[in-house]
Q: What sequence folds into this?
């Protein structure tokens, strides 16, 4: 199949493109390198050095014999989107090309507006391009489990069967997102469902949990193929932060009680989920939703796992939570769709993470300790 990976220079986009190429798909990447610009804006860098896209592509061709194409441009430029689809003629489009950090969207008004404009309008341009150029293209869109929030009922895979006053219906699962970023993803999901229902498009919406890990079988073949490892308070994940703090001999800092529970997924499973979705496309007119996670863990559980697996001594400390979220909550998620397609998940509880300790140890001289701590708060104060 011909697969176009939007945001293919990013943390997940790059290893996904390699995984698809390695599995025999003719793959091309679209990116505008904005993710690298965020690093400059925030004064941070990936813990693991990463090459520019041209070097990455050349290294992959050298290592594998497979060539990955590239198109440089922005989804906000509708002419570029249309032109790229006409040139590459994909069977599937994998859409990662959005601002992906909740804290970034909560910095201030400008960052909230940017996030929603960039994500929602770029996705709309893509939907129109698919509808007008080739409605048979299968859109595989990366969403987030954060769209749902933390409801006090089980989280189904995208849809909910309801009975109300003696009548029944099937509706999109109610969403209660926790940031302007997560809200942008909700808008995307509604727009995609509408396009499938009205225009007959085919789409798979992947509501993904927190991703951990930095290596896939493909990226591990050559240092030039490495993907990002973010640890800062804006783009870093809690597991990355805990591992770095353990290696540096610092306490693992839990925001609040640590009772916040989230879905988790190994990066190796992320790229495999994309492959499974691409190779088993949704039907025409179908808005298919999978919850892309493999297990649920509280922040306390994640900290305890890191502390137990790290060979040295580890302390755990609690900080005031900069986010507005329930400190303890019910969290039970249905996530069977991708396993039915063949996913054999790696679980953090069963998977040793010593390799992550080794990666951090080798690059700990690149850590900016000040960037480990949260600098963005969810609450706003009046200047009046």
A:
């Amino acid at each position: 199949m011909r697969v176009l990976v939007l945001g293919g220079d990013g943390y997940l986009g790059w290893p996904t493109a390699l995984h698809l190429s390695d599995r025999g798909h003719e793959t091309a990447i679209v990116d505008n390198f904005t993710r690298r610009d965020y690093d400059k804006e925030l004064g941070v860098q990936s813990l693991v050095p990463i090459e520019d896209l041209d070097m990455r592509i050349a290294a992959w061709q050298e290592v594998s014999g497979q060539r990955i194409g590239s198109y440089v441009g922005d989804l906000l430029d509708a002419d570029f989107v249309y032109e790229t689809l006409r040139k590459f003629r994909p069977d599937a489009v994998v859409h990662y090309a959005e601002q992906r950090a909740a804290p970034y969207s909560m910095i201030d008004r400008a960052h909230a507006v940017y996030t929603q404009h960039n994500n929602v309008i770029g996705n709309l341009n893509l939907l129109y391009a698919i509808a007008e150029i080739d409605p048979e293209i299968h859109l595989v869109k990366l969403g987030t489990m954060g769209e749902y929030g933390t409801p006090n009922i089980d989280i189904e895979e995208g849809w909910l069967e309801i009975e109300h006053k003696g009548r029944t219906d099937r509706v999109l699962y109610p969403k209660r997102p926790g940031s302007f970023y997560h809200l942008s993803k909700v808008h995307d999901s509604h727009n995609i469902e509408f396009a499938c229902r009205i225009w007959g498009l085919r789409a798979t919406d992947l509501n993904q949990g927190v991703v951990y890990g930095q290596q896939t079988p493909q990226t591990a073949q050559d240092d030039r193929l490495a993907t990002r490892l973010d640890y800062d308070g804006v783009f870093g994940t809690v597991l990355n932060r805990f591992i770095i703090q353990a290696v540096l001999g610092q306490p693992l800092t839990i925001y609040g009680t640590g009772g916040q529970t989230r879905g988790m997924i190994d990066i190796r499973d992320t790229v495999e989920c994309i492959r499974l979705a691409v190779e088993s496309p949704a039907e025409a007119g179908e808005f298919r939703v999978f919850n892309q996670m493999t297990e649920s863990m509280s922040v306390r559980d994640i900290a305890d796992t890191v502390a137990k697996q790290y060979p040295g001594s580890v302390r755990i400390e609690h900080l005031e939570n900069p986010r507005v979220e329930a400190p303890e909550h019910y969290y039970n998620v249905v996530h069977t769709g991708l396993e039915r397609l063949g996913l054999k998940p790696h679980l953090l509880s069963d998977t040793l993470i010593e390799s992550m300790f080794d990666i951090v140890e080798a690059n700990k001289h690149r850590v900016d300790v000040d960037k480990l701590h949260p600098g963005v708060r969810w609450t706003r104060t009046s200047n009046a």
